Every structure is written in C-alpha cells, then in structure tokens.
Description:
Chain A is mainly alpha-helical.
Amino acid sequence: MTMLRNIWKDKLAAISLSILAIVLTAGIFAPLFAPHDPNEVNMKLRYAASSWEYLLGNDHLGRCILSRLIYGIRPSVLWVLAALAGSVMLGTAVGFVAGFFRGKVDAALMRVCDVMLSFPGYVMTLAIVGIMGVGLENILAAFILTKWAWFARIIRTSVLQYAESEYVRFAKAAGAGSFHIIRRHIIPVTASDVAVVASSSFGSMILQISGFSFLGLGVQAPTAEWGMMLNEAREVMFSRPELMLAPGLTIIIVVSAINFLSDSLQAALDPKLRTSTSKAAEQTSAVSAKQLLGREVA
Amino acid sequence: MLTASHVHKSYRKGGLFSRESQQVLRDVSFECGRGECLGIIGESGSGKSTLGRLILGIERPDSGSIRFEGQPVEDRKVRQGSLSAVFQDYTSSINPFFTVEEAIMEPLKLQRKDQQYDACKVDVLLHQVGLNPSYRTQYPHELSGGEAQRVCIARAISTEPKCIVLDEAISSLDGSVQMQVLELLKELREIYQMSYIFITHDIQAAAYICDSLIIFREGQIEEKIRIEQLKDVQSAYARKLLQMIIT
Ligand SMILES: Nc1ncnc2c1ncn2[C@@H]1O[C@H](COP(=O)(O)OP(=O)(O)O)[C@@H](O)[C@H]1O
Ligand SMILES: [Mg+2]
C-alpha cells in the first residue's frame, strides 16, 4: 500500500502505471474492447483511412487496425509477462538458493549460469527457435531459458549482500530457521531489486518478441501481434507510412511506460520512504499547535 | 552454563579450488557461569567476532564443541529464548522494513509461535531501555545510533535469555552515549540475572562491566583473569594492553 501511494505521488509513474493497467485490462478482455473481429477480412476497405466505424483505419486486408492492436496485446504483452514471470521465478529461486546457502551449491549453480550467460541472448534464442521451429510458444520458452541465468546472477548478489547483514545474523542467533529468515528478512529487502530487474527487462522482451515476429520467427499470421503488424505495414512503407504509426507508437508508448515505472519503482520500494504514523501525527499536531500559537499572537 | 572446549576454526582463503586456509581460532576453551559477565578482549582481527558467531551457533567450529547447559548451540531449539545477541553495526542491526515493535517482537514470536503476546510487553521493554512507547511505530532509519542500539538491547532481552553475546555493542557509539548504554547493560543484568559475553577491543569498558576477562590474541587465549586481579596479569601482551589505558 505504501508502495502504491509512493508511486502515486510521482506523476510520471502514475501515468505509466495507468497506461499499463489499461493495456493489461484491454488485453485480457480483448473481445469486449475490440470493436471488430481482428481477423475479419474486408477487401472493400483495403487501406481505408480512419472512420467512425474503424477508428484507426484498415490494413492491407481491410481488417480493423484498432481491433488487431487490442488483440495484439495478448501475445505482445500478456504472454511476454507470463514468460517474464516464469524466468524471474526460476532465476529468483536459483539466486536465493545460491546466495543464501553458499558453498558448493552456489558454486555449481553459478557455473551453470556462466555457461548460459556465455552465449549472447539473441543467438541462443535464434538457435532454440531454429531447433524447435518458429512460433510464439517456442520463443517464450527460449526467453525463459535464456533469461533466468541473468536474473539468478543479479538476485544472488542481492541476497548475498543482505544475508550478511546483522539483522539476519541476529535472527539466526535467536534460533530462526532458514525459511523464516528468507520469508521475513530476505524477500522483502530483495523484492525491490527483483522488481526493478524484472520491469527493466520486460520492456526489452516486448521489443524482442516484436522483433522476432517482425522477422517472421514468432507469431504466425493471421494472429494479430504488434511486430507482425509492423512487418505487414513494411511492404507499403513508402506509399502508406501511416500504417506503421499505430503499432510502432503503441510499442514505444508501452515500453516507455514500463521503463519509467521501473525507474520509479526503485524509489517507491525504498524503506527509507516509510515514516512512522506516530511521527506524522506528531508533526501535524506540532503544526496545529503552531497555528494556535500564531492565532493567539494575532 | 556455557562451555567451549578445544574450539578450532579456519577459513578457506582464495577461490574454490584453493587448499590454503587461514586459522582464525586455535584451541579455545573457556567457561561462562550463570550470571557472570565474561569479557573477551583483543585487537581487531584477532578472531573475537568469529568466536562470537560460533557461540551464537551461526557457524560451526571445525573441531571442538560449544555447549549451552550441556547441549550443543548448533541446535537452534537450544538457542531459542536462551541465547541472544547485540552487534556492533546499529545501522544494519534492524531490518529496514520492520518497525521497532516488530523488531522487538521477533525473537518472542520465534520462541512461541502460536501464543499471542500481550501488547504491553513492548512498552515495558522500551521503558526498560529508556525509550518511551511512541518509538513503537518508528522505522530504524528514523532512530539515532544510541536509540537504535537501545532497541537492539530491548530485542535481545525480550525473551529474558540466560546469556547475551555483545559483540562490540558500544564501540560505534559516541563517548557519552557509550557510557549510558554501558550503565543500562549493567542495570539490566541485575534485573534479569543474565550472563554477558562482552566482546570488545576496549579494555576500559570491559573492566567497567565484566567480572572476568579473557585476553585474546591471534585466535588464542593469552590469559584469563578475574577483574580484581587485573593488576597482576602475567603475560607481556596483557601488560602492554593495560599499560595503554593507564598512560
Ligand atoms: N567469513 C569469513 N571468511 C573468511 N575469513 C574470515 C571470515 N570471518 C573472519 N575472517 C577472518 O578472520 C580473522 C578474524 O576476524 P574477526 O573474527 O572479525 O576479528 P575481530 O572481531 O577480532 O576483529 C580476520 O583475519 C578475518 O579476515
Ligand atoms: Mg569484530
């Protein structure tokens, strides 16, 4: 709750959060929001300009661009979010185990991570897609496989740092078990690192999946996807550049919103921003006391 | 009550495949009786904190054993409620997400998971360490060094333990605050009849509060003395330490 309030104070973050909330709801309830069937071909309306019925106009097959954008949220944002959650969870689990228990487990897990990280991410993804075939689910699987090691590394470092702190040492001395310590002490303080890392790679994953679809390796036609829509518009880039505008701008806006949000998340999760209720109460009472004094003087 | 016998500890130096190791504790044996305050004095790097961690069961000795009332301290059920600690670095001694109340209640909750504690307990503890009840809802970053260390002391005594390990508990406080906290510790010891293991490099503070001292050097016990006999220490090293405070 404190976190939401902190984010709300930051205007840019509040706008970003609202945009993302709208995008996510629109994606989940796409059939309710989309004015038309995204795959309904209507050759009479090829390249039609925007009208009241088709707010963003129609594409090369006369399909409603707005509806395709809304349905495109599902693979472009929602599925990316799911893949992100998967790799963050895997990476966090590995990072926690390695950072908290140290020793041989840590050494073994980190060598596996080193192997995973020694390949550039794009090359790994391309290789996996090459082996398993094109398609959204293969790209998502490739994302999980290539990203977890990176998360594990970062989270391990963060856990390592907090596991050495004196409040953890005290909890151990007082007879707390590992489970208690991880749940009460390590998770809350590492949560901000996890959130920041996850949100910053969310943006790049959206770009990547659009990139792969643009190359024809990801989502297959006729499913609507933002990168695919850009690819389809590419053929008429010079005669009708405005077709690139809708998917291009959507990607830019969503990715920027995520990046702004991830920036302010870091600040919002800082425990130093928490202030005790009693102190706040004291301050207000002090203020009112001053006002009273002022009144007496006046 | 607390006995250490022939404790050895070494840390591996260098990387994963390095065989080289640094011996930090060598054949340490001592005993701390009920209600006794035992000072452990030595230069920094002599292995005092390592010994403290072993006593608290956070790490295990390579060989030898540390027992609390006959049971090994590695077993956390033995430590729960009976052993406690106050550390040097008050800035990182309290979880930044905890309020003072949550921090103080933590060991109590660990000790008896199901029972509801009475809310006045925190007020009583805060009062005992000289803070007023309005501190309950504050976060650690809102506290000064002395206040934070008082909260740590309140947390340490909340389960009314039989023994507290104080690792440089007053060393990072300012002069006058140091004295206040030392007085507080002395008072609390009388109220609760606790033993202290008072680890410090400051022989003056140790002489003020302790009943007996262990002079520690390069991971070994150089000498054990009662505080009354502090004047007639045998070893040259201990003499040198004493010389420094007399002059
Ligand atoms: N976890 C550790 N790993 C490796 N070496 C350590 C570790 N803890 C302490 N040491 C080494 O043990 C020696 C004693 O440290 P410490 O017990 O902190 O001394 P003191 O508290 O007396 O200043 C130091 O040389 C330090 O480098
Ligand atoms: Mg030390």
